[in-house]
Amino acid sequence: MTRMLLRLALSAPALLAGLIIPTITQGQSAKKRLLVIAGTPSHKAGEHEYNAGALLIQQWLAKSPDLAVTVSLNGWPTDTTLVPNADGIVLFMDGKDGHLVLRPDYKRQLLQAAGRGAGIAALHYAVTLPAGNGDPLLNILGGFKEDNYSVHGFWTSDFRAVPAHPITQGVKPFQVYDECYFFLRFRPAVKTILAATPPDSLRNTPASRNFPGRPETVVWVYERPDGGRSFGNTALHFHQNWANNDLRKLVLNAFRWICRLDVPPGGVVSTVTPDDLQKNLDQK
Questions:
Q1: What is the maximum alpha-carbon separation in the chain?
Q2: What helix, strand, coil percent values describe the chain, rounded to 5?
């Protein structure tokens, strides 16, 4: 039955927005609960594959003895009990004016979850909001990409230094060709996890041109005044980049961290195959 629903959801996202795909295991009630909210199809094939990426996250964490992952495909969950009961919430969806967190009811749910200390994470486009509307993410994520102020463009980020932090356990310096956003808006208490120096030719906003050659934060964590933990990652425009072992480990580590779970000394162990990366892609 679950497989039938999944096929229907991926072939008809407009009809089944918010379909919930839970991980069901014995003793799940004792686990921390991570909710991954995946957006509707966006961009070209292989880009912004929110549904396929969310289902891979669930697959990689399925054997965690202390973490249960639920995925909401194609939009905000229709089950109104999920956000209030989540220990961690991952946003993987389109941003800017169409960002789901700008819808009053969804914004209220997210702010209430953050207010009780739930962890919040946002991946790639989900960190982007239009100018004047940044408060939902600035306050709960610690930073965001402001449209027409921050910068987007494709470049090879060379992460030569990886700081000591629970989410970097097992992560080595690496490079990735991706659309890593930079020149973001941040709260002072944000801690940079990954920074790299982009080509100055990408500094295509007036404010960003004033800082040529500056290393830029593209991945960060934020320990909020409300006691919650947040994680922002601007990479993962390309679905194929889930194959980068260090990037994938960093993200999976972060999901445990925002849920206040220990990260294994060598980081979360996961594997991915070429076939995995072809599963559940949106019809575009």
A1: 56
A2: 30, 25, 45
Give the closest residue to 62 by CA, choosing from 90, 24, 9: 24
Task: Supply the pLDDT for residue 2.
Answer: 43
Q: Which three-class secondary structure state does DSSP give residue 8?
A: helix
Whole-angstrom Cα distance, residue 237 to residue 180? Answer: 8
Contact between 230 and 142 under an 8 Å Cβ cutoff? The reply is yes
Tens of pLDDT, residues 251-282? 999 999 999 999 999 999 999 999 999 999 99
Contact 248, 242 (CB under 8 A): yes
Q: Which residues pair with 284 in a beta bridge?
A: none
Counting beta carbons within 10 angstroms of the beta carbon of residue 205, is it exposed (0 to 12), middle (13 to 18) or buried (19 or more)? middle
Mean pLDDT of 93-120: 96
d(CA 223, CA 145): 19
